[in-house]
């Protein structure tokens, strides 16, 4: 019974892209740190880190001049280790404390995000390698390396990207330790015509992940039917994910493409049940 409860708690451990959000069954109440949220929490943090990188490295400049961008918080420094336009290293330094406003929520960041960019991001083979130096968000210590590679165009002429998270780890402000790694492929199906505007972007996502929750329990997950994600919708619009915890498993079906918070689950091959997703991403991140 305890194992099954842990499995059910993992219902929504996967929420990919800038908007993958931790969820739970409505009737279970407002639990801020369920096992489901833990895995989604670490995904959310790394998505936010990628968003921060986008703000400063999505540029076609051919400059080779080292420099610091204006702004007291964060301080952004760009260096060119080979005295050529590429590669370039972008360091986002939040110092000892930097307040970042996200709508009605304030994030307190400190430490550094370091991004090595090998070429223009729209160029096949280009990579962004993101590392962290003593980096915190709201007193959550975040570690790990995320590498995003442009794999070129597929048979449908859509750009595809591989994202790999290695040694992902969060030590929360409550001294809980969560680990996470994943490999994903993201197909850019809409929005490429205006790459500097992100909110009309839509993607298909495949891949798998693994990790441990704060109780040291291991899990794996696999996208069994590609996820359909739009940045203007706070929920995954369609697709299926299978999550395995010990001998138990659960299959989540996110729907038929509508932007809604309804999904279904099948636990250990049982009957399909509908449940409601709750958007909790900003509750956890924006204290």
Question: Can you describe what's shown?
Answer:
This protein is mainly β and 287 residues long. Helices cover 13% and strands 47% of the residues. The protein has 3 helices and 15 strands. The protein has a 15-stranded antiparallel beta sheet that branches. Strand 4 and strand 5 form a beta hairpin. The two termini are 33 Å apart. Mean pLDDT is 78; it is low at 1-36 and 279-287.
Topology of this structure?
Blueprint: H1 2-9, H2 35-57, E1 67-68, E2 75-79, E3 88-93, E4 98-102, E5 105-117, E6 127-137, E7 140-153, E8 159-171, E9 177-190, E10 202-212, E11 218-230, E12 238-245, E13 248-256, E14 262-267, E15 273-276, H3 281-285
Antiparallel strand pairs: 1-2, 2-3, 3-5, 4-5, 5-6, 6-7, 7-8, 8-9, 9-10, 10-11, 11-12, 12-13, 13-14, 14-15
Tell me the series of helices and strands, N- to C-terminal: HHEEEEEEEEEEEEEEEH
Task: Give the helix/strand class.
Answer: mainly beta
Largest sheet at a glance?
15 strands, antiparallel
Helix content: 10-25%
Number of helices: 3
Nearest-angstrom radius of gyration?
19 Å
Keywords:
mainly beta; 287 residues; 13% helix
Outline of the structure:
The protein is mostly beta strands. The chain has helices at residues 2-9, 35-57, 281-285; strands spanning 67-68, 75-79, 88-93, 98-102, 105-117, 127-137, 140-153, 159-171, 177-190, 202-212, 218-230, 238-245, 248-256, 262-267, 273-276.
